[in-house]
């Protein structure tokens, strides 16, 4: 059961979605949590503009994880949340995008709940929503796809496995999180299961931010074009979607007037 905060409690944790990086996309509820926090435990990919909105008295602690790289252990993050909350701190646990989408939220909720600490979830705009807006498309479209899959490129065991047969069907659309390093693996699995090599694939790097970049390619050319683009920021991969020309124009306009 989700708990709400009451004045006088020993401590409290708000699991807040930071959105894709543009501070104007934060919710009013997220801003309210920022204003009350005296400690912010944040992911690695949170933008500086979002972190700047935290209350002046708030201590910022980076507890970020990096795919296939050095990271905080989840058990250590859980312990830190509990320790600070039991000392009476009002904590914002700040996660990129929406905390309920590939945010390892459950482990942290279970830890604070077991310690008797009050908590709540503050939703945020997930990367797929921000990135698809950046290419001027819809995640679903009548006559094309009545469902969309949110996938992760890798999990705790390595590259993640999925229902490749279903994904390879014409008209399928998928939003792939953390998919850059697994691009060749994903390409191979899809082609092996009959996917059309000409299927459009679009990557959106730094979605919603001033340095947003859009890479439009195909399943056949995905690993090659991705290597050439040298994307080093967080990127969302859309399988089955190509950007509208108008969206590309707006992206260039925003860069020129930033």
How does this model look, in words?
With 258 residues, the chain is an alpha/beta fold. It folds into 2 domains: 12-124, Tetrapyrrole methylase, N-terminal domain (Cobalt-precorrin-4 Transmethylase, domain 1, 3-Layer(aba) Sandwich), CATH 3.40.1010; 128-256, Tetrapyrrole methylase, C-terminal domain (Methyltransferase, Cobalt-precorrin-4 Transmethylase, Domain 2, 2-Layer Sandwich). Helix content is 30%, strand content 21%. The protein contains 9 helices and 12 strands. The protein has helices at 28-36, 48-51, 74-86, 105-114, 127-134, 164-167, 183-192, 222-229, 245-256, and strands spanning 12-17, 39-42, 59-62, 90-95, 118-122, 149-152, 154-155, 158-159, 174-177, 200-205, 213-218, 235-239. The protein has a 5-stranded parallel beta sheet, with helices on both faces. Helix 3 runs parallel beside helix 4 (105-114). The termini are far apart. Pathway: Porphyrin-containing compound metabolism; siroheme biosynthesis; precorrin-2 from uroporphyrinogen III: step 1/1. Residues 15-222 form the Tetrapyrrole methylase domain. Pfam families: TP_methylase. Keywords: Methyltransferase, Porphyrin biosynthesis, S-adenosyl-L-methionine, Transferase.
Describe the protein's topology.
Elements: E1 12-17, H1 28-36, E2 39-42, H2 48-51, E3 59-62, H3 74-86, E4 90-95, H4 105-114, E5 118-122, H5 127-134, E6 149-152, E7 154-155, E8 158-159, H6 164-167, E9 174-177, H7 183-192, E10 200-205, E11 213-218, H8 222-229, E12 235-239, H9 245-256
Helix pairs in contact: 3-4
């Amino acid at each position: 059961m989700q708990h709400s905060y009451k004045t006088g409690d020993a401590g409290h944790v708000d699991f807040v979605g930071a959105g894709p990086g543009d501070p104007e996309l934060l919710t009013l509820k997220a801003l309210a949590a920022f204003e009350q926090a005296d400690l912010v435990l944040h992911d690695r990919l949170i933008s500086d503009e979002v972190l700047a909105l935290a209350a002046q008295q708030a201590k910022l602690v980076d507890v970020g994880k990096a795919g296939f790289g050095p990271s905080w252990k989840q058990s250590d993050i859980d312990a830190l949340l509990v320790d600070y909350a039991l000392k009476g701190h009002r904590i914002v646990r700040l996660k990129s995008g929406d905390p309920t989408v590939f945010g390892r939220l459950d482990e942290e909720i279970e830890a604070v709940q077991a310690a008797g600490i009050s908590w709540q979830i503050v939703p945020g705009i997930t990367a797929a929503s921000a990135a698809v807006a950046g290419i001027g498309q819809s995640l679903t479209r009548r006559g094309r796809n009545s469902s969309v899959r949110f996938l992760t490129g890798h999990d705790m065991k390595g590259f993640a496995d999925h229902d490749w047969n279903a994904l390879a069907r014409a008209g399928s659309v998928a939003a792939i999180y953390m998919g850059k390093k697994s691009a060749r693996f994903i390409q191979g699995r899809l082609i092996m299961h009959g996917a059309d090599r000409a299927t459009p694939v679009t990557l959106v790097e730094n979605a919603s931010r001033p340095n947003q970049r859009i890479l439009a390619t195909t399943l056949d050319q995905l690993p090659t074009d991705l290597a050439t683009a040298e994307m080093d920021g967080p990127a969302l991969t859309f399988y089955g979607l190509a950007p509208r020309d108008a969206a590309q124009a707006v992206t260039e306009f925003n860069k020129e007037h930033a």
